[in-house]
Design a protein that fits this description.
Layout: H1 2-11, H2 22-27, E1 33-35, E2 38-40
Antiparallel strand pairs: 1-2
Length: 41
């Protein structure tokens, strides 16, 4: 995750990561969840 974070910050790009890992979600700037086909922030 540190490598991905570094690229995002240095290049000014966005990364989309799909995970069920709460540790990874805690490192994210923004978390959007899908429940019953609907997006929840």
């Amino acid at each position: 995750m540190a490598l991905l974070r570094g690229v995002v910050e240095s290049e000014g790009v966005t990364a989309l990561v799909s995970t069920h890992d709460p540790v990874m979600m805690a490192l994210a700037d923004r978390v959007i969840q899908i429940s019953d086909g609907r997006l929840h922030e």
